[in-house]
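Q: Protein A?
A:
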Amino acid sequence: MAGSPGALVLRREDDGQVVCERCVVADTTLRRLRGLLGRRELNPGDGIVLRPGWSIHTAFMLFPIDVAFVDADQVVVKVVQNLKPFRASVCRGARDVVELAAGEAERRGLKAGDRLAWAARGVNGRPLTASRPLPLALETAAASPTRPIRVLLGTRDEQFLRLAEFLLTRNGFAVETTKKVANAVDLVWRQRLDVVVLDASDSLSEAARTAAAIEALHPQVGVLIVCDDERPKPATGLPIMEKWAPPAEVHSRLSALAHIRTLPRRQQIVVAGASVVLAAGCFARFGLSAHAFVGAILAVTLVLLTAIDLDRRLLPDAIVLPSLVAVLILQIAFYPDHTLEWVIAALAAALFFFVPLLVYPAGMGMGDVKVAALLGAALGKSVAAAILASLFAAAVVALFVLAREGLSARKRTIAFGPFLAFGGLLVLFLGGR
């Protein structure tokens, strides 16, 4: 019997034993709230995974269940058997909560310490066999000296498409594109493709089904699935990675200059103009001083980060971390008596945003944490005012969006980097030293 649309297979990684044949992914607030409510039973082999999640309750359910808490490394950290209705269970450190039929954990031998793996269901209802790793597929394709490696990008995200196409073309790949992920199956044969990259941000199930079809019809083709941070990233035989976290071999070449070059031409001009104006403004405001020099570095960095974050929801380490180190070193060199202030302010600002990141990972990114540390290193104790200004500006914009678009806008994501930049620049120019 075919599984539910979007259902995945859960298996134990060490021995390949299937733990759940038909596991539905509940990856939105509404799906997690609904869970198994309204169902009269949960058949053996069926299940649901709540992601992200570290606690559950069985209020108003009509049957007991087995529960497995899984961490970010896909390792089972806790198993609760026969959890009856109107009970609750919590496991700090878990990222996924897998709900199975009562008795399934014991029958399948599921226990704490087991490492799990996800697999998309094949077109015939059976689990997919493990795909060859992408690097091997690339090596095989590269073995042919007669033509470049041909890569298909299947995505509706214009920003991601522009960046990926730039990086691949620059490294000698021949790139084809499609906005319809399902069309990738036909294009593989017609375009003689070697590697397919599928964007699962809109639909994980569609990407998984397409990957399954490619595996069945064209086993020699490498397949890579990418998705946004908040989307589930099950550890299947297919490589699955964050959309904005390039592979190591590409990421090592992704410099600050590359991030700038991938911006649209008009944005590059705006960034250059704003950087010159703000840098000049620092020297006009503070004179030829160390404070003006550090402020100019901060201003230029914040302008560039704002443009990148607005364009593709990314605050790249290649820009943030070198700027943070440079600012901190210069501050300590110019003002050694305030060394403790710079260090504590950077750590405190980062911690202020790191705590919400732990509580609700989808609401805050590590990039925001690092930018906050940069502000702390540059502004010292005045960073508190910068954070307050950024939060106030973000709240105003959020209320405006809600008023204009209604409650449907609650699920809309807003880049927070520009608000941090606003707060930092406001305090930099108005706060003085």
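Q: Protein B?
A:
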Amino acid sequence: MKRLLPAAAIFGLLATLLVAAAPVAAQQQETTKEQDIRTLIEITGADSGGLQIGESITGQMVERLRSARPDFSQQHLEILTDETKKLVSEQLPLLMETIVSLYGERFTEEEIREMIAFFRTPTGKKMVSEQADLFAESVELGRSWGRAIVPVIRARIEERMQELGN
């Protein structure tokens, strides 16, 4: 009876390990996908976006603080800048995890690899190098367009309101 107990325990342990092996293999496959997503994020320059956002936030905070509190010393502003940069650096890995998860939900591993292949081509590299300027110019064009159509929208609304007698 003593020999059966250790054998049963070993059998139970082996069965548990075999059952646990399937999810581990799936996790390793997911890990490969996550690594590919990180590669994609890196080659597209999206990984520097968090730092740029942090710098933007810091600049805005400093400007607002200077306006609201002109008595703040340069030393105080340096502390604000330093602590903001530290916090952004500390929190950036969490943001990256969220972004990796977001990509993982929307794209298959094959699609991620196809995007990596594209962004490694000369055309893909050019798109990455032009993307920030294209985005900035598109935003400005959108603002200009919006400012141009606001008077037309107002006129149309006023005309329709007058038709209603309001």
